[in-house]
Amino acid sequence: MASLFRDRTSSGDSKRETRHSINNNNNNNNNGNPRSTLSVNLSSPFDDLGRPISDAELRETAYEIFVGACRTSGGKPLTYVPQSERASSASPTTPSLQRSVTSAAASKMKRALGLKKSPSSASSTSAAGKGSPSSGGKVRRPATVGELVRVQMGVSEQTDGRIRRGLLRIAAGQLGRRIESMVMPLELLQQFKASDFTEQHEYESWQARNLKVLEEGLLLHPHLPLEKSDISAQRLRQLIRGAFERPLETGKNSESMQVLRTAVMSLAYRSFDGIPSETAHWADGHPLNLRLYQMLLEACFDSNEEGSIIEEIDEVMELIKKTWVILGMNQTLHNLCFTWVLFHHFVSTGQADNDLLSAADNQLAEVAKDAKATKDPLYSKVLSSILSSILGWTEKRLLAYHDTFDSSNIDSMEIIVSLGVSAAKILVEDISHEYRRRRREVVDVAQTRIDTYIRSSIRTAFAQRMEKADSSRRLSRNQTSPTHFLSILAIDIGDLANKEKQLFSPILQRWHPLAAGVAVATLHACYGNELKQFISGVTELTPDFVEVLKAADKLEKDLVHIAVEDSVDSEDGGKSLIREMPPYESEAAVANLAKSWIKTRVDRLKEWVDRNLQQEAWNPRASKESVAPSCVEILRVVSETLDAFFQLPILVHQALLPDLVSGIDKSLQGYIYKAKSGCGTRNTFIPALPELTRCTTDSKFHWKKKEKLPNTQKRRSQVGTLDKEGGSFGLPQLCVRMNTMHHIRAELENMEKRLVTSLRNVESAQLDISIGPDTNFELSIAACKEGIQQLCEATAYRIVFNDLNHVLWDFLYVGEISTSRIQSFLKELEPKLEMISNTVHDRVRNRAITAIMKASFDGFLLVTLCGGPTRAFSRQDSQIIEDDFKSLKDLFLADGDGLPEELVEKAAMPIKNVIPLFRTDAESLIERFRRLVVEAQGPSAKSKPLIPVSSGHWSPTDPYTILRVLCYRNEEAATKFLKKTYNLPKKIY
């Protein structure tokens, strides 16, 4: 491989010559590599060596291996040509030149890695073929690939010359022996003595380096494990220890070298099967081989342009691969080491060249393929270490990518994410035993990792925004109305969410389809935690509280909008993200505070109801409208409460209004119930029907005015204290109660309309607001309707059966019918009607008078059908009954000024149907009665009919109604029939 070191004029440039000149000035040390001065912030992923061997020492050893491997693979014998001669004999027609031009023009390897041509390549190519003088102050370019590697590795010409001389001597003594069968440090130690070095110190450093390499490769990290009892290992260990105290005498014929050689050869040619190996294993033990190979790979980086790979990488890499047989390397280990070197070089050169990082990412794709096919434990260990280092570096940036990236360097983010995700996938999917045990489960490593990066970085960014917002709050303390820091924070978080969506999410979506959604969901949770703490300390509705809630509400809507937009095409339509974003508890907090406010107002209203009712006298003169003052006062409180509610600084009036309305509704319902309590009902005043009895034709009654009759039916006892005209239950007071309930109903209906207007005026309301079942006074209005009806009926039946009982039940048709007619009742009923007309509200008046009319008609029917034994009618009396009933109807018609005729006629229909029974003869009534009883009770009723039961309605087709008419019929036929059929007594009781 002599051509490796022959002159090359087709590649390289003045920068490399400058570098070469620098190396010439450092002939006495091996630390000429410029990368030794770089700030490397990554620790090596390879295991530590047992001996402290510097990078310069490893580099020189690697260079020796490189030169030796290239020597034995060449077709021509190796010859030594001085540097000056190599430079002057360069020719453009040499094969090296042709390879150089091709490499400079288009590197296949760089294209595969996605790398662009170096800026210096053009000038290098244009300068190709132009000779450079060896003197005159001008620097010259490396002439061959071998010289290029030497310059890149920082090996001086002096060191290079000594190595080549040593290899020539070795080749002369062992002609035809391949380099992989030699132990190079041993062979080189045998070729040189102290006299071959200019200084004793240089010789001792050189010897110590070779001995340390032998110790590393054969004793500390051998290719095959050593047994503790191995004699050769013990002897070599003693020799090396002694050499560090006193240098060995080297040379072919020295005794110490012979002992050393015996020990080294015994250890280097060991094999697994016990048969001596043909290959010497002295540099292929881990991690020595990887550290040496790393030194060779770093020669691929241009020493004059940080982050740039040389254009001749194809040729250089072809030669580097010749060392695999010595270092125990293969393609998979090469791919792994080259990935690390690319990545390490990007980091150590200031992270300026994204192409270099992209190359590492592309190379990692090859590693991923190898990892799936290679299950060697040692490979897996190295793989895990390198990937962990890469992943650790990327995650330091990605777990807080808001601090790492912005619009100026966002281009590098995608490459770093890709690199980190790829490393994580290999670590988890191809190395992790736990993953393999659980591989049936669906685990998306990339998406899980990106999810972690997003949430971590978002939380970090949120904490920074919080601190910034808190600082703004402290600076604004002296302002009249400083903005709450949570309001400031909500604005900042909104900006952060937009930045995330526009800048970072488009990149992260390559690995996580819901990147923006995850980000805003995390922001939603972070802000929600702060909001929750704030809300927990609030005890009343303050402007600050409302301001924060408004800001939080806007922020939440913006975040949810982004989440929905981001997840519209996802499998679940974004349901999982939305579940991560439960609504803020702000509405609940507002509701709690507002409900507390509502409860206080409702409780106060209940107290007003109780207190005012206790003082209420229901005096019709207390107000112009004859409405109870307590009602006016309570409605005023209700109105003020509603006005105050809509003045509350909240956003959810419509949601909370049902609670307030419900409380008011129940309080007013209680007022209404208490207002009608004790007033009685229709049934309170209707007397109990007397038992069935019989009047005979010879019964004679002589009733006189004011004379108490012995058999007068007693009235039913009343519920409570029912006053005549005075007290709180007199007729005027009942009228006030009716007016009060009507007033409440009218006011509540107006309030419901006001509620609609008020809701439309508040900020949170919509234009289509309407009062629903939850926001109206349903209970109170229904109670008013029911109360008015009850009071109308109670008042009517009280007037008819209580107040006018003496002219109705105790007087009408008692004794002589012609002297006890309806006029007395009408005379006393008329002023009652007039008082009601003058007192009760117009909208209630007809209902009250209608109730009195129905009560009067009921009373008239009860007197004629169930008036008791003091009454008896003949067929001739039917005309009087008809005339009296007409007079009763005329009272309510009032010559057209009273109730509508249709209403009166409808109410009179039951009486009009029954009156014809009074002019029907007894035989006809009996025959009709028997027929109806048989129809109701069956054929057995012909021989033994049962007494019919009242149906509750008087009707000419009702047997009970006919039976009552017969009981009070003053005819012999009726008397005999009742005695025979039901054994009713003839005697009047």
Structural summary, described in words:
Residues 23-33, 115-137 have a biased composition (Low complexity). Residues 819-929 form the MHD2 domain. Residues 546-689 form the MHD1 domain. Residues 1-43, 74-142 are annotated as: Disordered. This is Protein unc-13 homolog. With 989 residues, the chain is mainly alpha-helical. The protein is built from 39 helices and no strands. α24 runs antiparallel to α25 (543-566), α31 (731-761) packs antiparallel against α32 and α34 packs antiparallel against α35 (878-893). The radius of gyration is 58 Å and the shape is rod-shaped. The termini are far apart. Residues 1-40, 74-84, 86-105, 121-139 and 697-726 have low confidence and may be disordered.
Task: Please give the structural blueprint.
Layout lengths: L13 H11 L30 H19 L9 H6 L6 H11 L2 H6 L6 H7 L18 H9 L3 H17 L10 H8 L8 H21 L10 H15 L9 H14 L19 H10 L15 H8 L3 H4 L3 H18 L5 H20 L3 H22 L2 H4 L5 H22 L1 H5 L7 H31 L9 H24 L6 H22 L6 H24 L8 H5 L6 H30 L13 H18 L6 H24 L5 H4 L45 H31 L16 H26 L19 H17 L2 H25 L11 H16 L7 H14 L7 H16 L21 H9 L4 H11 L7
Helix pairs in contact: 2-7, 2-13, 9-10, 10-11, 11-12, 13-16, 16-17, 16-18, 17-20, 18-20, 20-22, 20-23, 22-23, 22-24, 23-24, 23-25, 24-25, 27-28, 27-29, 28-29, 28-31, 29-32, 31-32, 31-33, 32-34, 33-34, 34-35, 34-36, 35-36, 37-38
